[in-house]
Write a structure and sequence with these properties.
6 helices, 226 residues, 5-stranded mixed beta sheet, 2 domains, alpha+beta, Glutaredoxin
Length: 226
Amino acid sequence: METERNTSQPATSLPRLGQPAPMFEAVTTHGVLKLEDFKGSWLVLFSHPADFTPVCTTEFLGFTQLYPEFKKRNVALLGLSIDSIYAHIAWVRNIEEKFGVKVPFPVIADLNKEVATAYGMIMPGESKTETSRCVFVIDPEGIVRAMIYYPLTTGRNMNEIVRLIDALQTADKYKVATPANWQPGDKVIVPTPNTQEMAEERVAKKGEYELVDWYFSKKTLSKTGV
């Protein structure tokens, strides 16, 4: 793994939350794919520093283990590094041979760094030649909903990515928010009243909520919402 550090800070444009994800068309281990190919499903686009490295291998094993959970949530996975398509194929085959695990999702071969640059995946302060461990959650309309960046030395927590998807999908479906450490089945945050009249109504209906104050209310979700 590349360890040379560069403290220069060239200007770079990063995707923004709530904005359309950068479009791309790229060669992958499953053929040529475009961002539009994932329209209608959620997408977790993630980068790794390099093929045939131990931490990255554990991450591919982790994503593969939870692949059925992502599928249940209508989430596609798409990996990326700036290795060649041949390196990707050889590595995926090696993972199957050495660990008995068949990687089910495609991996972008981004040799020209076009996708990595568009998504701000290269951090020169860490490495000039490898992508960082980035995660982009893109919704079915192609909007960036979440971004997580990890350093080269630290493997990701796949369960947290699943939890994040659950929180985003719950918030969208029921028009609520989720508190810190929320897990499916926990109480959610009810939208805060935005007028004095609504605040007074909220306090008057405190029996319907776990009401700390007019601005802080929780409720258990029912099948029909809040």
